[in-house]
């Protein structure tokens, strides 16, 4: 194994866990108003209070911590970039079980984490190999609802609950994702930096340019934050696959993993059969 690549497992100290519980014990919330429990204005304050209470007194972090260590082969890798200190990247790498699997690089966004791949890896590994780099940290908040804006000034931990609540399903799922951000060593900058770079870096504009050399596939889910029309997607590169789904949202790999995996199989399978996709090791 390369000296820059090291095995990794999630192990949060008891001291950090205790510190989190102390912060949750003193969590504060916005004042209750006639709109506080109206879902049209965002997640109701009463739901946030209930979830924070469960986070403090009922949520079993150790059980959730054990799952990725058991199911996801994790590594850290030093990426050397000229002009910068080496970047320590956390990733998951799982090899496909069939001969000549198609290598996939899956990158998560915010407020996602490496844990998003937990449901699609079992579906993909029979046909592909994958390596998922991940940057996790305490999230900054986006103005997606009125109540979401109200929480940050009151209390960081209750606001983190709000930022994730609207996307996921069970209490344990929500709190596992939030806890990953809270316990991360990277800090808030890891999730914020990409937004600054996208706004200020000249090279960031290249993603909006037509790239003839890269085949493009687009899966659109109705509850995602943004949905680009086909006419826009066709200006970015040769569009070889497009699918509009009737369910799923921003975390499609977690919400509807079977739909996303089927799209990947159809797109890449078609490219292999047509001879448009060739790579070392594939037969």
TrEMBL record:
InterPro entries according to UniProt: AB_hydrolase_fold, Epoxide_hydro_N, Epoxide_hydrolase
Listed Gene3D superfamilies: alpha/beta hydrolase
GO process annotations (BP): epoxide metabolic process
Pfam family, one: EHN
GO molecular function, one term: epoxide hydrolase activity
SUPFAM superfamilies: alpha/beta-Hydrolases
UniProt keyword list: Aromatic hydrocarbons catabolism, Hydrolase
Coiled-coil residue windows: none
Domain Epoxide hydrolase N-terminal, chain residue ranges per copy: 6-117
Keyword match Zinc: no
Stretches that traverse the bilayer: none
Recorded family membership: Belongs to the peptidase S33 family.
Record-given protein name: Alpha/Beta hydrolase protein
